[in-house]
Amino acid sequence: MNLDSKIPEGPLEQKWDSFKSNMKLINPSNKRKYKILIVGTGLAGASAAASLAELGYQVETFCFQDSPRRAHSIAAQGGINAAKNYQNDGDSIWRLFYDTIKGGDFRSREANVYRLAQMSVKIIDHCVALGVPFAREYGGLLDNRSFGGAQVSRTFYCRGQTGQQLLLGAYSTMARQIAQGRIKSHPRTEMLDLVTIDGRARGIIVRDLQTGKIESHVGDAVVLATGGYGPVFFLSTNAVGCNVTATYRAHKRGALFANPCFTQIHPTCIPVTGDYQSKLTLMSESLRNDGRIWVPKNQGDKRSPDQIPEADRDYFLERKYPSFGNLAPRDISSRAAKEACDAGKGVGEGGRGVYLDFSDAIKRLGENVIRERYGNLFDMYHHITNENPYKVPMRIYPAVHYCMGGLWVDYTLMSNISGLFVLGEANFSDHGANRLGASALMQGLADGYFVAPYTITNYLASTKPGGVGTDHADFKRCENDVNENIKKILSIKGKRSPLSIHREMGKVVWNEVGMARTRQSLTKALQQIPAIREEFWKNVSVPGSGAEMNKGLEYALRVSDFLEFAELLAEDALAREESCGAHFREEYQTEDGEAKRNDQDFAFVSAWEYKGMGNKPVLHKEPLTYDNVHLAVRSYK
Amino acid sequence: MSSFVPIPSSSIGCKFFMGITGLLLIGFVLGHMTGNLLIFMGPEAINEYGEFLQTMGHGVLIWVARIGLVAIFTIHMALAFALRNKNNNARPVPYGADGTIQASWASRHMMLTGIVIFLFLVYHIAHFTVGAIDPDNHKEVIARDIHNKFDIYSMVVKGFQQPLVSGLYILAQLALGLHLSHGAGSWLQSLGLARGWVRKLILPLGYGIAGIIVVGNCSIPVSILLGWVK
Amino acid sequence: MKLTLKVWRQNNPSDSGRFVEYQANNVVPDMSFLEMLDVVNGDLMAQGQEPIAFDHDCREGICGSCSLVINGRAHGPTRGTTCQTYMRNFSDGQTLVIEPWRAKAFPVLRDLVCDRSAFDRITQAGGYISSNVGGAPDGNALPIPKVVADKAMDAAECIGCGACVAACKNASAMLFVSAKVSHLGLLPQGQPERTARVRKMVSQMDKEGFGACTNQYECEAACPKEISADFIARMNGDYLWASVTTEE
Q1: Minimal Cα–Cα distance from A68 to chain C, Å?
Q2: In this prediction, does ipTM exceed 0.90?
């Protein structure tokens, strides 16, 4: 297979300009003849829908939520990066580019990341124009905060709701296009298949979640902006509705899935408290500035934390990484916590948690200072756990929260299937093996507002609008496949809820393919997952019919895709015999436990091709070349 | 100006006029009470006041005021029924459990207290203005006092010396008080003024005006019943 | 903990619906309300019965999907969304009445799921600033005083869950609409369309069949994001002013 990344010639700084100068255009009066289907209405999908509709295309959007405004982009708290250099602290497009590519542990494309850094500047301008209420300084200018992985302050924010506000901006501008009749929005509608005709993506099969009706939609291009697949681990900080269905079904129709094993773990989440738990809540990493992380020295020490004397405590991060201490990077801190809990020293119910203790900080600075700095986080923790963190140490544990992997796309964000574009978290393109804080929002909006309108126009210019209808044999065949699949699930009438099977699978994926992976654990997962899948197809219980709103069926369909995708994830992790970014293979570490990247053999994008259920997927490699940056070793010393 | 016309057809417009008419009615109620309190200054004061009302503008102005009041009342009530209708339609299926957080009883029963006030009003006009409830007493007013003025003082005193009548008036004043406890502050919101510190006036204003009206108006029948005013 | 649940079950929008009683056993105080329902649903499904349908997604109080009325209170007895309500706020043996948002403008689709697309249509009527991609000036070209930006942000925090409508005895949407009108109306970028926006949004709100504001502030008390009812007064003012000043 030819993995042509289609990166324009010329110096890095001029590649995007060169693309724009050479791209094909479509006459304004002809644009309205083209229809674009956009699946997912988060930052990437909503912004793409709005900007494409503004150009004059007919756009149809689809989302499984009851309104486009509820996509999971809404949950991003921290902020959005932009190389504005408003702070005069030496920021530049080059620095943002370099920080991002280095943060991604050199597993992303130079050209894509550079374009992202260039677009960042325009995002802020446009969002301000849309009325996004960014934080301001007293003089009325935009305020910035600093964020991990950078030495400059370049993060714009709206209190703790940056994702929500940016999405509402995109949603409002999308609403304007809906009112003008240029966008038709289909909420409560889930994509269940991709239709390709003569090698081109020409449409989708969807299920109307309100009526259960299976419908075909035809278009001249299909855009997937369906986000990440975090819930493959069952518990994650993602919304429980996040799923892999759209991208995985596209994968089954020929789209390559790139780097599925690159999933980011966030160290400061509220730990699991019981078997019933459905969701993990992220707390800002800033807590580690003043909190000290520890576990009891002795296995199974059940004393309450205030009863455990200093001598019996293990401040493991301070011990292992004396120079960075509690501020060690996300992946290191996460793995260290896992190690401590694996050794039987974990605290709290279930033993999967470590203390994040503020008592020293409170003694040193006083409760008021701590309240000022972290008051809302402490309140949130108190509300959820019913423990007062001013009195009792917090308990934290790492959790999955972002997926760098996704469908493979070229420079124009088109997958290997012609006419299928993939934007935002759903593609693999910009974050390599690890994403920096405040960069996800930047990517979603860059893709949607500023990249897709150009690249999709360029693609459409070489096609004729229309030409096929939903009565085409390929639509009928896909519709039939979808109907059969639903029928099959409904006919099992077993004894287990989809939730219990999802939870069982998630445990395997988290334990064996989670924070630290080994050949052995991955092999084990590859044996266990098919068995759980078999259990699903034998014993799942989905009552009700397909011809009505059926929340159980929606969920079961998503779980069925996770059950296949989990295997792909493990397969990818097994094939990548190095440690890089968020992917840590225990076999590949330095003597002091740091990730050992292998640029000689693994400086490539893993793009997997589907070969049928039960068959091994085939790995294609897109080599990564670095002409502008030097491949450095990430060091925390 | 073309767009001024549709205001009442919108929910905010309805509430605006509800607030304006309510405010005017509060003005009337306060004025009416102030006049009535003249009874504590003796027969001459209140009878003179009555004479003034009857003869101002050669007897024309009182009719202007009466017609105005009727119009305001009618608008206030018509809007209330229109809003009631709209609001009932907005929630066709009621909740199985009541979970009101902080809305006062009075604010949730404005229609009830409003209707009580209206019925009282009919009675009140029949009682003191037309004289249909107690014709004998009313004739004495027509008979006029020694200064050839309407003898309102005697009419009121004799009227309220009947405990049943006084009781009715006191109950009606309580209904009016409840109605005002919400309405006398709420117009600030409907007119778009209740932001920041102004909003803090809503409750004190509502309860304050309601309190003044209830105490002021009830003081008359109570004093008469207790024999303080004879 | 053991609880008795009286849950509203309704097969589809045209079904009249009814309360059905369920027993929730093995309830743990640290469970969230939705996790408690997950357990009930898991049992129902394992027995081949259809689960109770309810909307939910992020489960961290920000997406605005969850929408249950518990014992007459929108989002339950504590401040915050339904997903951020924990079982420790109830007592062992208690009976809970669980219902969907009830409003003509929010028709029930199934069980506890209602259709809130009326909010989308209100936004489409004018809840935006008309600015195409590509034409924006520099973000700092238009300084906005911090107090103004903060106040706009106060209004913008609305998550569109609809608890204000659910809590209002008139099923009025004034808090939702006023939050959007105020967010955009406070910012200088929003001035050109300010009067048209408020008129169009209010007119759409009325068309959708929401009730009128009755100044009780139940909406404010139920709002998980603590949006202030001051914005309603602000919208009233804006609307009245817009009505007398716009020529159309």
Answers
A1: 9
A2: yes
